[in-house]
Structure formats: C-alpha cells, structure tokens
C-alpha cells in the first residue's frame, strides 16, 4: 500500500448490510471509501455575539498565516462562505506525497482522526514512541489499528497501523510520558504535525477569539431551526453544546433556551461552558428527554405561573424532571445516533444489536418532541449518520405517526438546497424526500466562493412544522 493512502474502514458483514440498506452498490462503495478519509473542507462558525464575520476573518487569516510560517507551509486562505453569514472555511490539501521518517510515534484511533482533521498531537495523546527520541527530532506518526499498542512502548509497533504524516517532537521521549508532560511546552503539544498527510491548520485555539470548529451541516441545522430572539426553545440532546451555543447566538441571547442531556457530567460541563460565554438566556439540565412531558394539569399550572410572572426555571446545571406540553416554539432533536457520518472513522465499534437499537430510541425522543412542541412550532430532527433507518426511516415514522406534523421546505431561507434528497424505499414520497437534507460523505455540501466544491461529514436533517388545527385553535392550551 502506498504511504499516502488510508486503509478502508473495517465493518462486520452484519453491520455493513444494515448500513448499506437503501443505497445502490455504487453509492455505498463511495460512502464507505469516503468514511476512511477526512472531509476536504474545514469550517469555522463565527460567534457573532463576540465579533463580526469580517473581524473573525482577519483573526483567522492571521492565525493561519502564522501557523503556515511555523510549519513551513505555502500560505492557505481562509474564505467567507457564500451563503451562510456566520461561516468561514479553509480548503484541506491532501492526500500529500509524504514519505515516513525513521523514528516512529503511535497514537490511538481518536487522536488519529483528529490529526487527519488538522490537529497537532498533545503529549497525552501519544501512545508510544520509539527510543531514542529527543526534542526537535523528526518523527513519523502512525495510528494503531489493532488497539494493541502498549502505552509507553519503546520498540517499533508491529501491529496493523496507518501512516498519518510526519511531525517534530517538541519533547524528548521521557518527557512525553511523564505525568507533567502537558505542562511542559506551549499548550501541551507533544508533536507538531509539520508534514501531515492532509494539510489543514490546527484551529481549536481560535475559540477565545469567537471562532468554533463546527461541521457545515451542523451549522446549517442552527439556521434551519431559525431561532428568534424572545422565543422559548428546547435543545433536547444538547451536550457538548456546539448547536446550543449556535442557537443562543442566533437568538441574540434573548429568550429562553432549555438545553437537556441525560448525562449529569455533561450537563455540569455544558452549564459551566454557557456561563463562561455569558449566555444568560440558556439553562442546561440533566433530564431524560424521552420521558419528560408534564401532565395536562401540570402544564396548566406552568402556564398560569408564566402568565402571572411567577414561573422560575430551576438553576442551570441541576436536574429537571418535566417540561410543559406544547411549551416550546422550536425544538432541536439532535439525538444519540450511530455516528456513522463521522470521518475519518478508523475503528467504528458497532455491534448489529446497537445499530438496530438507535432508530427505536430516536423514536421515543420524537414522541416527546411532538408533545413538547406548540402548534405552529418548528422541529428539526438531525443525525450524524448515513444509516437510512435512523434518517429517512424515522422521518417517515414521524409523518405517519403524528398527523399534525408536516415537512417544511427551508431551502430559500438557508441560501439554497445543498447535499442530496432523502433516499427512496424508506417510506417517503418524492415530495417528502426532496425536503430531506442528506449529506453523504464524499458528496459536495455546496460550492465555495471560487466555485470549488465544499465537503463535510456525513449528516442528515429534516425540518417539521406542527400544524395549527382547523378553525384557528392552536392546540390544547390556546
Ligand atoms: C449527538 S450528541 C448531541 C450533540 C449536540 N447536539 C451538539 O451539537 O453538541 C447526543 C447527546 O444525547 C445525549 N442523550 C442520549 N440519550 C438522551 C436522552 N434520553 N435524553 C437527553 N439526552 C440524551 C447524549 O448524552 C449525548 O450527549
């Protein structure tokens, strides 16, 4: 195998049969191949509460110029997205023709995925390094594909591995593996990726300047939801909070944004994060969103308290059991999914039983979402997977189960349709399929400023509206 090609992802036959359902042989082959490689575009979302897009562009370009200089790369341009007003992007170069150097460093699959998307390597991310290795040495970086490399191993790893590029070690071998390594140099970077297989700047440090790394379809989801200042909005499965932060920004931090997650640990982090960003409109709660709807009398109590001005949401970061039925103007359901749109994806660990459990679980969340949404309200259902059972299958399920839900066409509002329509054969009519937003890995998710193809992770979303009943009655509570 040449040095610059990444190995295909490994899937058991059962899993492959489930995932390929709904695709032609050629479509599936192309999706499968793309899952082994990083997207060709890196996207940044501008926090418009912090800075304007033009200021962000200048900051990002300065940062990228500096990095290109340090790494001895040709200049790379940061560009403004032609249709989404808060998006910048950079073209990823690769695969490049890089030859491995002599000394070898091993990283795990998670770190390997990040390296291919432009990250340098934190000392703590290094699994093993060949001996001897001094600060300043050129090293070749490999990802462990057998999950068998021992931490701290000093001999060359003989298991299955893939080459990710060359870097320069900022620490000697011993320092890399000491507990205090993270404090030794800079921000804990152990290996600077100077000759990566895919060249994309490391951009996570731009966060404090108001720029977040976010995949394009995830940003599009925020715009498709179209949150407005003053509204009451629910983010049902919110952690780590990338989309929560975007929704709060689009609401201009005015209104009420309730962010739920089942994991208390994640909610603590999310609540602290929102506070650190001065997002006073949002509150994060530990809550099982699949069973969190108030009874009708409880909802009436909530509405009376709201009208009297006596309703108080509990403190952010705490537990919450119930939410008011038909209490939300807009709901985002970006729930747990098989994540088979993430790329690169070196070692997907998916058992068939887990894969088949997701659609059911997502349906239980859809039932809650439907009860919590007010008539006339908007629901966005999204996943980061190519599984048609979780995507088109569940869109069809919701349309057939909830008679008052209809799909809406948001293409005009978000600058035009990108990606592809929903697949056939999963219970959707042609018109309904046209209103699905499907982003198969390897297929362009739009066109850039200079006509170049933009590309991101695999993703899917659909936007519903809950109809107002005939006769103008808006629902149970109005
Ligand atoms: C795909 S992630 C959400 C990503 C998030 N929307 C973002 O953009 O940062 C799915 C999340 O759903 C949470 N989750 C799973 N089951 C849940 C449930 N029943 N209620 C609430 N959250 C749940 C998981 O803990 C996980 O953090």
TrEMBL record:
GO terms for biological process: RNA methylation. Keywords: Methyltransferase, RNA-binding, S-adenosyl-L-methionine, Transferase. S-adenosyl-L-methionine binds at residues 237-243, 261, 288, 334. Pfam families: Methyltr_RsmB-F (PF01189). SUPFAM superfamilies: PUA domain-like, S-adenosyl-L-methionine-dependent methyltransferases. The keyword Metal-binding does not apply. Residues 133-467 form the SAM-dependent MTase RsmB/NOP-type domain. The active site is at residue 384. CDD domains: AdoMet_MTases (cd02440), PUA_NSun6-like (cd21150). Signal peptide: none annotated. Belongs to the class I-like SAM-binding methyltransferase superfamily. RsmB/NOP family. This is Methyltransferase nsun6. The lineage of its organism: Eukaryota, Fungi, Fungi incertae sedis, Chytridiomycota, Chytridiomycota incertae sedis. The gene is NSUN6.
